[in-house]
Amino acid sequence: MLLPLIRPQLESAFGQYPGGTDLLNRLFENVKFSLVHGIQVIFFWGAVIMSAAVLLNLALREIPLRGRVEAPPAIE
């Protein structure tokens, strides 16, 4: 993880400005929220698509394969 390594540098850089530390904390919270929301959306739609695939698979009728075919005679 790169963020724990550069966080002190970011805090010192943002701390030079009035309200900079609060801005940095809000930025981290918004990034975290966006990542969590994005992952939740991806998993939700993945579950919907997988459920639809299972239902489609159950709805398909079974078509038997054709019988065995005799192998051609070996050429000597």
Instruction: Report strand %.
Output: under 5%
- Count structural domains: 1
Separation of the first and last Cα atoms: 66 Å
Q: Enumerate how many helices there are, as a single number.
A: 2
Bin the helical content.
55-70%
Radius of gyration: 29 Å
The parts where pLDDT drops under 50 for at least 5 residues are: none
Overall 3D shape? elongated
Mean pLDDT: 89
Number of DSSP strands?
Answer: 0
Question: Could you state the order of secondary-structure elements as H and E?
Answer: HH
Q: Structural class of the helix and strand makeup? A: mainly alpha
The major β-sheet equals: none
Summarize the structure in words.
There is one protein chain. The protein is an all-alpha fold and 76 residues long. Helix content is 68%, strand content 0%. It contains two helices and no strands. It has helices spanning 3-14, 20-59. The radius of gyration is 29 Å and the shape is elongated. It has one domain.
Short description:
The protein is mainly alpha-helical and 76 residues long. The protein contains two helices and no strands.
Q: Top keywords for this entry?
A:
mainly alpha, 0% strand
Give the helices and strands, then pairings.
Layout: H1 3-14, H2 20-59
